[in-house]
Amino acid sequence: MTKKELPSPPNxxxxxxxxxxxxxxxxxxxxxxxxxxxxxxxxxxxxxxxxLGWIIxxxxxxxxxxxxSLLVKYWNKETDKTxxxxxxxxxxxxxxxxxxxxxxxxxxxxxxxxxxxxVFPQKARPLHLHHLPIEELxxxxxxxxxxxxxxxxxxIQEIFLLLPESSSSKETEYQxxxxxxxxxxxxxxxxxxxxxxxxxNNKIEIKKIILLLSLQLxxxxxxxxxxxxxxxxxxxxxxxxxxxxxxxxxxxxxxxxLPLYNIENDFxxxxxxxxxxxxxxxxIWTNNIEDSFLPNIVLxxxxxxxxxxxHNINYSFGQSSPISLMLAMTTALKAIKTQQAExxxxxxxxNNIVLFRISS
Length: 360
Hints:
It is a single chain. By secondary structure, the chain is an alpha/beta fold. It has 2 domains: 79 residues; 268 residues, Thiolase/Chalcone synthase (Peroxisomal Thiolase, Chain A, domain 1), CATH 3.40.47.10. Helix content is 42%, strand content 20%. Strands 1, 2, 3, 4, 5, 6, 7, 8, 9, 10 and 11 form an 11-stranded mixed sheet that branches. The chain starts with 11 loop residues before the first helix and ends with a strand. The mean pLDDT is 88.
């Protein structure tokens, strides 16, 4: 919504000249056309009607001006209110207290941040530690998180496990192992990336810490996607400030959906309300974005003078899986530590692009 300008007030010079002109025309008509010779006739039948007509027109114009001014003021007030709500909406974010990952690379996603990232666009690869049982893999994740936020397990509110539907047969096993590893906390199983959006959009209250685990493993010999395990400790700014937690790993903004057919207008909204300084954005991470659509994203970045490197996660880890957005998110979180700059994550879901901003 854009503000409107107040209408111009009635121009007194115009209305004065218009009034005098009407009187002159009325006198001319009365003398030369109607052949009135009596001054009273000219005044009563010509001048007074034009004066009344002028008054009616002037009052109508003034009322129209007042009405339009009130409407514009109301519109601008609602626009300010809407802008304020959008800004508040755009500034909401989730605090990240820890970020852990296991991938086919020995150093996790760190190699993607170097000069020679791995290139396996068509190949599905196993975890580097694929020979270890799931219990030891979870212990590895736990140790990574423990280094970033010591004794975090005491503050875990609940655990969310994101699994592809192809791993549904392993749900009970994973759930049991997770409970053993993380002090018998409640484990909520999710199968679709969209089920995470209420968390990122602050629709689920986070009083302490939520442990978010994402597992892409080769269950039932389905070697379609590269394996990975990611974990994040999610919290709220309120908890962060209350506990005076420092340093903070990073922040994830609430996600924004950009319809493919209207990415230009919606990206403009994102930049207006969800991004403080485009110069702080140094890397763009994409997942499940077709090569044919990438130029549209690059064009929008150029329009907003964002000079950032664009990385496609799928070039390094092969075909995008239904939950590989979390791999892109984890990589972007790692990148803010090395680059000390903001990151954007683009992920295609059906006919939409879901967009996140990662900041430190």
